[in-house]
Amino acid sequence: MSNTYIPIQMKVERIEIEDPDKALRTFDLVFVNEEDKKNFEYMPGQFCEWSLLGLGESPFGIASSPTETDFLRFTVSRTGSVTNEIHYLREGDTIGIRGPMGNWYPVEKFKGGNVVIIGGGFAFTTLRSLIVYMLEHREDYGDITVIYGARAPELFIYKDEISEWQKRDDIDIQLTIDNPADGWDGRTGFVPAVTKEIAPSTENTWVVVCGPPIMIKFTLPVLSELKFADDRIYTSLERRMKCGIGKCGRCNIGSKYICIDGPVFSLAELKKIPEAF
Ligand SMILES: Cc1cc2nc3c(=O)[nH]c(=O)nc-3n(C[C@H](O)[C@H](O)[C@H](O)COP(=O)(O)OP(=O)(O)OC[C@H]3O[C@@H](n4cnc5c(N)ncnc54)[C@H](O)[C@@H]3O)c2cc1C
Ligand code: FES
Predict the structure, then answer these.
(1) Global pTM?
(2) How far is the CA of 59 from the centre of ligand 1 (A)?
(3) Is any atom of ligand 2 closer than 6 Å to the C-beta of 259?
(4) Which ligand 1 atom is the nearest neighbour of the CA of 56?
(5) Residue 219, C-beta contacts closer than 8 angstroms, at least 6 positions apart
(6) CB-based contacts of 39, cutoff 8 Å, min separation 6
């Protein structure tokens, strides 16, 4: 990226509605300029600021994997002014993004190890990026286990793709919903309890946890109880952001700026920042 302040022009190529309330939409964006496409290099866990003229900017995790070179994918939950306007976008519209920003899941460190991915709700975005990336480099990783929870079956995102992953024998997908529901024959229970039940082996295993703050708060102690070391557990933090490049001071916790030092941190790092919890 040549100038971090100047948004890159992107065209909305595909929109998919993910939930019955139409509050979650997935956008596939393509680069308007070939040069921008060539210069845009990212890794799973990074995010972009979407710029909407006259309204402002909002950060969103990149849900596509760097191995998917033709588009960038994002899933946006409608929560306020910027996200509401994003939900009015139609296929063919153009928007600006700045990025890629932040650090990423340490996929190089994970090589040769087993990886447990724990996700909740629509925060599954960057976890999708990580899963697709590891499946594309399957020989580099040991067992891949995914524990993914949603309030109800219809609230899982990327349902078709998850069904495809469930058919594979090189990835273990464990889905759970909060309470029993008609037609659901999978697990029920909150993600921390299900993680405890599954009790993944700690041997040469890395864990990535991403989801609503409450889920993260209750899952981290379970992982410690299962004897995962703090430096083997990674999570991604969400904070209000503005510039995304460490200039405005909006996103700091203690001495760390989530936009440049994060959003990905190990539990060992977070324990040195008491305000993180
Ligand atoms: C690194 C990062 C990655 C993110 N990835 C995604 C993603 O993939 N998909 C997605 O839908 N959202 C994601 N978010 C959250 C998203 O940026 C906010 O929901 C969005 O900026 C809200 O903008 P708004 O103008 O629509 O809402 P506002 O009108 O600004 O606020 C509406 C409500 O949302 C709350 N809110 C706003 N921003 C945040 C935030 N960062 N964290 C928690 N609560 C917030 C406000 O307190 C308020 O209650 C991410 C945030 C960060 C920092
Ligand atoms: S968002 Fe401005 S310093 Fe992090």
Answers:
(1) 0.95
(2) 7
(3) yes
(4) 25
(5) 118, 191, 192, 195, 209, 211
(6) 1, 2
